Amino acid sequence: MGKTVTEKILDDHLVEGDLEPGEEIGIEIDQVLTQDTTGTLVWLQFEALGLDNVQTELAAQYCDHQTYQFDFKNTDDHRFLRSAAGTFGAYFSRPGNGICHNVHRENFAAPGKTLLGSDSHTPTPGGLGQLAIGSGGLDVAVAMGGGAYYIEMPEVVEVRLEGELPEWGTAKDIILEMLRRLSVKGGVGKIFEYTGPGVESLSAPERMTITNMGTELGATSSIFPADEQTKDYLNRVGRGEEYDPLQPDDDADYHDSITIDLSDLEPLIAEPSMPDNVVPVREAAGADVDQVMVGSCTNGAYEDILPVAKMLEGRSINLSTEMIVAPGSKKASEMLAREGWTAELMAAGVNFSEATCGACIGIGHVPGSDSISLRTFNRNFEGRSGIEDDNVYLCSPEVAAASALAGEIVDPRDLDEDLEDPGFEMPDSFEGAEHDIIDPDEAVDDDLIKGPNIGDVPLKDPLGADIEGSTLLRMGDNITTDHIIPATQDILMYRSNIPKLSEFTLSRVDDTFADRALNADGGFLVAGENYGQGSSREHAALCPMFLGIEGVLAQSFARIHKANLFNFGVLPLEIEEDAYENIDQGDDIEVVDNVADAVRSGKEEFTIRVNDDWEATGVLDASERERDILAAGGKLSYVKQQHEDGG
Ligand code: F3S
Questions:
Q1: Ligand 1 nearest atom to the CA of residue 35, by list position
Q2: What is the whole-number distance in angstroms between the Cα of residue 122 and the centre of ligand 1?
Q3: Is the pLDDT of residue 205 over 90?
Q4: How far from 469 is each of 252, 569, 588, CA to CA, in Å?
Q5: Which of the residues 152, 282, 455, 601 has the least number of beta carbons within 10 Å of its own beta carbon?
Q6: For ligand 1, is residue 99 a contact (CB within 6 Å)?
């Protein structure tokens, strides 16, 4: 049986398991990336592992999410990250040098390699034939220490592209079409592998717009073959020697197959407030637009901004509309400036932002209340722009530019007969921002620099024989990671200060919880269905652990959060509805019968004694590896032990 591109890369990196969908596999990681809001914890965890140096081929630390140093805590975080990169041997990309995915693809991404990153859009370099996956920070820290990355083998789904894009059709319309068809849940447990004759017509940057936004489908990753287009891009960024051709075998076997005829596509737009609310632009046309933003890791490249500059050259944007260009990398900014395009855009009425995530997560350029913002970004969840009653639409740079000219949403085909499709063009070479990545060999610091806001990572003791404590909080169904640890700007700055951050734990449910938990001698959380849904945020497990939470009893758990509970040594037990209904806040809970040994031995059912009066059953659904991690007190202790044992 022939192999897919995904299977070829996984085969080359497999250290444990079989490539059967649903089976747990362990893979070797070649490259890691991390960014500023997740990176501080990653390095604190790496330090706690007791290792001297990064063990992967390459590690890169970016400062992109919060680059405006409006508080000393942000600046201290950046300085700590620079010192960690210098101390442990990672590249350091300075604040303002650009968004991790853009800078990584320009400098490091390579076909056939594996990449693990503590950011959900890590799959971006799949457009260069790299197998790239986003994960929690602890997995990244462990991979940097040379440990394997474990994941359930996803289904590999073929996306067959036929034909070529029509005039005004763009790569953004291809991924919006995928979202229109499959929805934001359509990629869960899947890797989308692009094949077919339409692939050849797409340049590597266009492919990376698609792989970037594959994350919005919920996919584990997305990938293209490595071919002449890949080679062409690598030559232009000055890394031609890293080209390694990679194609699926003719008889490769895919789990499923989807076909898109590119010639059928037209300009599309995602309406508020979900990336899969996709309609033709013509259906949304006519709505007044207050703000237009071109940028982000999806459409912030030089090649994305160039068509906008060509469309606006010699024209002026509508007086009722504000337009901001936020390049994805400083290299893109510098190239646009050197070629005179920055001046053309400014003359048309455009303002420029530094190369940062910024507005994508509500930091700067927050839209006016109940106004329309048209963005080339990848997400438009309600409130993400920084205001609850936002109306954010997602579209291609070409639709954004046309709408800025019109002052209303418009399909560029309907705007003006003289407006020509600028087409897609790449520069001969990418040159600029040469001074903004610090090579590990030229490290500025070789000691960690921790400001007062940067603390240590708390470690948990190994599981004991009996676990007991009070029910510190009883919650309902669908508690999200946002409920557990909010991600608002005033709290974000404490992500490297766990004691301080923990004060906000579950404050949206009960603002006395953190205080009560700290003063109690261990305790439990009780919840209904789907506890921990939402993001992969590991602080949602780490902070309760810091406050002394020993276990969570819930009717069901969200998958990633449950994995995070294992990683931080918190016992997740599933309970029946009856038991949930009968446990009250304040009840004493005891999990009995030599818990540590039982967890290790594979026991699934545990006795829970409530108020020394009645008993319920808690079910532990965990792999052998997860049981060992839990019994050790969490993944840090587990991996540390393995290193000490020479394993
Ligand atoms: Fe940054 Fe937004 Fe991408 S936060 S990494 S630009 S999705």
A1: 5
A2: 10
A3: yes
A4: 54, 16, 6
A5: 601
A6: yes
What is the per-residue pLDDT across 141-191, written as a single tens digit (0 to 9) for each?
999 999 999 999 999 999 999 999 999 999 999 999 999 999 988 998 899
Domain residue ranges in the chain: 5-264, 285-411, 467-644
Angle subtended at Cα 252 by Cα 249 and Cα 254, rounded to the nearest 5 degrees: 145
Q: How many Cα atoms are found within 13 Å in the side-chain-facing hemisphere of 265?
A: 30
Q: Note whether 5-264 and 285-411 share their fold.
A: yes
HSE, side-chain direction, 13 A CA sphere, residue 435: 1
Q: Which tokens hold the place of 479?
A: 């508690």
Q: For residue 646, is pLDDT > 70? A: no
**Nearest of 433, 436, 209, 420 to residue 300 by alpha carbon:** 209
Q: How far apart are CA 135 and CA 114, in angstroms?
A: 13
What digits encode the pLDDT tens for the residues 557-582?
987 789 899 999 999 999 999 999 99
Determine the 3-state secondary structure of 580 from DSSP. helix
Note the pLDDT of residue 1.
Answer: 84
Q: Is 119 in the pocket of ligand 1 (CB under 6 A)?
A: yes
- Whether the Cβ atoms of residue 111 and residue 130 lie closer than 8 Å to each other: yes
User: What pLDDT was estimated at residue 487?
Assistant: 72
In 602-637, which positions are buried (b, 16+ CB within 10 angstroms) versus exposed (e)? eeeebebbbeeeeebebebebeeebbbbbbbbbbbb
Average pLDDT on 70-94 reads 95
Q: Classify domain 5-264 by CATH number.
A: 3.30.499.10
pLDDT at residue 66 in the model: 87
User: What is the fold, at CATH topology level, of the domain defined by 285-411?
Assistant: Aconitase; domain 3 (3.30.499)
Q: Angle at CA 311, nearest 5°, toward 310 and 316?
A: 115
| Residue 318 pLDDT greater than 90, yes or no | yes
CB of 63 sitting under 6 A from ligand 1: no
Structure confidence at residue 647 (pLDDT): 54
Confidence of residue 643 (pLDDT cuts 50, 70, 90): confident
d(CA 495, ligand 1 centre) in Å: 18
Confidence label for 195 from pLDDT (cuts 50, 70 and 90)? very high
Count of C-beta atoms within a 10 Å radius of residue 255 = 14
Bridge partners of 50, per DSSP, are: none
Euclidean distance between CA atoms 588 and 586, whole angstroms = 6
**What's the count of helices (H) and strands (E) in the chain, helices before strands?**
25, 27
**Does the CB atom of residue 357 touch ligand 1 within 6 A?**
yes
Residue with CA closest to ligand 1 atom 4 = 357
Per-residue b or e along 526-554, where b marks 16 or more CB atoms closer than 10 Å to that residue's CB: bbbbbbbbbbbbbbbbbbbbbbbbbbbbb
CA distance 424 to 399: 14
Could you tell me the CATH superfamily of domain 467-644? Aconitase, domain 4 (3.20.19.10)
For residue 294, what is the enclosing H or E element? strand 291-295
Both tokens assigned to 23: 């089976």
Write out the two tokens for 142.
């462990």
Query: Is the bond preceding 263 in cis, omega lying within 30 degrees of 0?
Result: no
Beta bridge partners of 617: 607
What three-state secondary structure class fits 83? helix
Where are the strands (E) in 88-162, listed by range?
91-93, 114-117, 131-134, 149-152, 155-162
Q: What are phi and psi of 189, to 5 degrees?
A: 75, 20
C-alpha torsion sign, points 435, 438, 442, 443: positive
pLDDT above 70 for 363: yes
